[in-house]
Amino acid sequence: MTSPAPATRAYRRLSVEERRTQLLAAALTLFAHRPPEEVSLDDVAEAAGVSRPLVYRYFPGGKQQLYEAALRSAADELERCFAEPPAGPPTERLARVLSRYLVFVDEHDAGFSALLRGGSVVATSRATAIVDEVRRAAAEQILVHLRPDRPGPRLRMMVRTWIAAVEAASLIWLDEGKQPPADELRDWLVDHLVSLLVATATTDEETAAAVRDLLTLEQRTGPAGALARRVTSMVSEAAHLL
Q1: Could you list the residue range(s) of the whole structural domain that residue 213 is in?
Q2: Is residue 13 a part of any domain in this protein?
Q3: Count of structural domains, the chain
Q4: Cα 160 to the chain's mean position, in Å?
Q5: Whole-number pLDDT of residue 124
Q6: Under 8 Å between Cβ of 131 and 116
């Protein structure tokens, strides 16, 4: 009596789109935790469980094409972090956006750092354009919540300045071993934007109008109210010292 043949795992051929998605996922995982110049096509093939020629079949431009495709995929994910329905107190919306953003930074630490520092040997004008596109999209999303009809140059500059500060803070956060905790960094960045808005509003009527509209949507117990109380307390203490 012969023994039954051992069961074999069923093999399913992937469609072109499924295979491409699989290779991009493998590449993204590698690029997320290692600088791009330290990732080879052999590494991607091994992570995906395929051969190197198969990677070339889908990305004939080699590592550069694969990197830019992975970057485009990551950029799309990052842009989605900034998408938030315009409902509820604005500072609470912003806190949700920043929470998602910091999760992305945490999960893509090495790749995020290499990307924004511009230190990768595979960086190109196309890669830079993708990153700049994310910055512009993030700024536009923030302006949606500030609700100006036609944001002027001062307000646009202020928002773009804050986006740059968020990037810088993220890189410093990674350098400092992800300290302070993400929720503390998030709250500080919310306070930072509110402070920039108020400072800009003192000399720009358009920003002042936007701030007045936003404050009507805020709660006294929310981030804006808490910041106002802390600032008022500090100003009061300073007045006694003068």
Answers
A1: 71-236
A2: no
A3: 1
A4: 14
A5: 66
A6: yes
pLDDT, tens digit, 9 for 90 and up, residues 161-202: 999 999 999 989 998 999 999 999 999 999 999 999 999 999
3-state secondary structure the chain: CCCCCCCCCCCCCCCHHHHHHHHHHHHHHHHHHCCHHHCCHHHHHHHHCCCHHHHHHHCCCHHHHHHHHHHHHHHHHHHHHCCCCCCCCHHHHHHHHHHHHHHHHHHCHHHHHHHHHCCCCCCCHHHHHHHHHHHHHHHHHHHHHHCCCCCCHHHHHHHHHHHHHHHHHHHHHHHCCCCCCHHHHHHHHHHHHHHHHHHHHCCCHHHHHHHHHHHCCCCCCCHHHHHHHHHHHHHHHHHHHC
Tokens for 148, please give them. 């100006």
Residue 48 belongs to some domain of the structure:
no
* pLDDT confidence of residue 5: 47
Give residue 236's pLDDT. 67
What average pLDDT does the segment 82-103 reach? 92
What does the alpha-carbon distance between residue 131 and residue 75 come to, in Å, rounded to a whole number?
A: 7
**pTM for this predicted structure:** 0.79
Residue with tokens 């700049």: 132
* pLDDT reported for residue 199: 93
Spatial CA neighbour of 232 closest among 23, 130, 224: 224
**pLDDT over 70 for what percent of the chain?**
87
Q: What is the CATH number of the domain that holds 154?
A: 1.10.357.10
